[in-house]
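S.,

Sequence below, as promised.
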Amino acid sequence: DPAKWSSGEVPDASTLVIVESNATINVVGDEDPEVQEVRVVGTGNKFGGDRSLNVRGSVQMDGGGLTLDVPLHVENAMFMLNGSVLTHTANAAEDTKSVQLEVAGDLVIDKTSTISAQGKGYSLGKGYPGSKSGNEAAHGGRPRSPSDATACYGSVMCPTNSGSSSNSYGTGGG
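The prediction came back faster than expected:
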């Protein structure tokens, strides 16, 4: 919708998109949209929707926060500076949300910035399918109880699954 953009036009492959505080960008349409460059300069921002976002140039996060719920493909470099945080929406009963990021060039994360999935795993009392009680599954390792040995899931080397919660102690890990 062109009315939702400050330029009055939907961004295209030649557009620099600047994302300021508390902006929600829904990536939707018949095709995966493409923009030239993205700069995230404020906190509380979210990319949602049902399509991938393709960035022909680079992405720069400068003290910005971004919840990324769609695949992001960056053809050049991505820079995360000055306390920037990249995360995804927390999962509930199913493992549907994750950071899906592909950067063809360099990914530069300074010492004050993070990509974090902490606390974004399954909600309280939920867990990986196959765990007997919702509190015994073990992501990439041995479960707490030897009687639930079939509940080990995921990979330590290439983690892609959300962490399970317990039946009584908060949400699962990232």
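The two ends are 34 Å apart (CA to CA).

Coffee later?
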